[in-house]
Amino acid sequence: MTKQVLIIEDNQDIANLVSLHLVDNGFDVELAPDGRSGLDKALTNKYSLILLDLMLPKLDGLQICRELRSQHIVTPILMLTAKSTEVDRVVGLEIGADDYLTKPFSIQELLARVNAIFRRIDCYQINTVAAETNIITFADFELNADTRTVVHGEHEVELTAKEFDLFWYFAAHPGRVYTRSQLLDQVWGYGHDGYEHTVNSHINRLRSKIETDPASPEHILTVWGVGYKFSNTSATVSNDTALH
Q1: Do residues 8 and 117 share a domain?
Q2: Is this prediction's pTM over 0.85?
Q3: Which domain holds residue 195?
Q4: What is the CATH number of the domain that holds 155?
């Protein structure tokens, strides 16, 4: 199936150039010239990837990213930004962007980032199907990879896309210790070397949502001098619903 890409970019020359190369590489492309029309398209249509400029008229890229994630739209987002400072990149990643690319960029690097995102998605789906599981349960928690939901007792836990990915990865590998760099590689993927503090902030927010006492966590434990691990060793998995 042909992958659908939405480009939200107000610079028409950049949008047309990127679109041309994506089409040449087998993607279907739609364009949005401003933040408001881009958000409307992203909310009403299903895309495989969104290329999102940070500086946009009417609505900026950070607002769009935040709104999409708050609406539980987990479409991968590759953020395009003329801002090269670390804080700008970190903010984008922490509100739910999957990767970023700083302008000016080469078409070859853009295509490499796009293909890397799709490889990670394909690998995640293959590994999940191979493990024949899409549900993990432990204590009063149920994680469902198909619906990307977490239920604790009778209540659904509201998680961002990255918080869910991180929680699922921990729960699928109980007892294993991961460094921050390993978690960046496995959950965030290509292009995030040097942003270990992003892991810290996501784990802190995840703990605030799943732990009875976030200051004394029972599930996601800190292994001092190394990283983190998931404490539960009795999680069960099942494949009640097939992944597609």
Answers
A1: yes
A2: no
A3: 132-238
A4: 1.10.10.10
